[in-house]
What we know:
Layout: H1 2-41, H2 46-54, H3 57-82, H4 85-91, H5 96-99, H6 101-120, H7 122-141, E1 151-157, E2 162-170, E3 175-184, E4 190-201, E5 206-216, E6 224-235, H8 241-247, H9 256-266, H10 272-287, H11 291-303, H12 310-339, H13 345-367
Antiparallel strand pairs: 1-2, 2-3, 3-4, 4-5, 5-6
Helix pairs in contact: 1-3, 1-6, 2-7, 3-6, 3-7, 3-11, 3-12, 6-11, 9-10, 10-13, 11-12, 11-13, 12-13
Amino acid sequence: MRILDNYISKTIAQIFVSTILVFCFLYILIDAATHLEDFIANKIPMILVGQYYLSFFPTIFVQTAPIASLMATLFTYSTLNNNNEIIALRASGLDFWKITRPAIIFGLIATAFVFMVNEKFAPQSASMAQDIRENKIEVHTGDHSGKIQPIHRLFFYGQDNRLFFIDQYDPNTRIMQGITIIGQDKDQHMTEKITALKGDWTGSSWKLTNCQITHYKTEDQSLDGDIQFFKDKTFDFSESPTDLLKQRSSVSTMNIRQLKNYIKRFKGSGAIAALNSIKVDLHQRIAYPFACIVIIFVGLPFALVTGKRKGLTFASVGIALGIGFLFYVVNAISLAFGKGGAFPPIVAAWFAPATFTAVGFYVIKTLF
């Protein structure tokens, strides 16, 4: 058994690595082909381009590892099936779980590795890619004529111990929509809460429209202080439109600890949509790596189905790959429902893994 396990595990690992490298190559090839003319016209140094694309590797790995795990497993067991080796293994008394043990162990290892990369390397690489793109490549191109896309759910730590959350910020018009600003003391107790429908940059300050200011007594956070309402009020915040772009925080650049810290700071702020969205992202960081083992678990039964014709095996592989892509679709939809408030954050993140695990058990019980 040990020889068989080592053989299957080695084959799966080799195909997995090859598949990841192919995905990375295709991504770089397509993206580079799209921007090649700009790189050449603006004489972007090749070393800078290389650093830019190298920084994408952890993110590409995390995103493609589940489907690469599935493809490696299916290809390995389909080859065994085509050579009638699955029939021989089952005839020798090995059941489904013993035959698939190397794949399941590989899936668990891949899950742990994806979790580590997603936590330790992906946030830093995403931040590095953003920094290279904004501060080096775009500086070289000098193309500022195009409009910048509006930024949704902008949140960051500002100066004077303020926490900002903005539903949408348009860098072209310098207008903020759906504003919540939390003022805190040195012990992170909320002292002030500012909400406004809209904020306009006047050139030296921010003018907030339909603004409500609530002052809190730090000795008793449960009691609201004075509430003031202004049709229009000007604030001399330290943050200018340029600072908003520089200080923006993206979920992709944060690890689990940082996400928990944001949730803690936003707690009690009243920014329900922001809190809900960040909670979904937090649970997704924990749940997503399990896609590696879940997607293998669902696909394995189809790869081990035996028949008189080899076409049946290839059909099973096609069905399993379809299930793999369906996982991504269901996961994306459940996350969208979660961020929209239809699902609790933990349900939104774990809906796809739990559902497909149940499907896997059902298929195994039915076929084996």
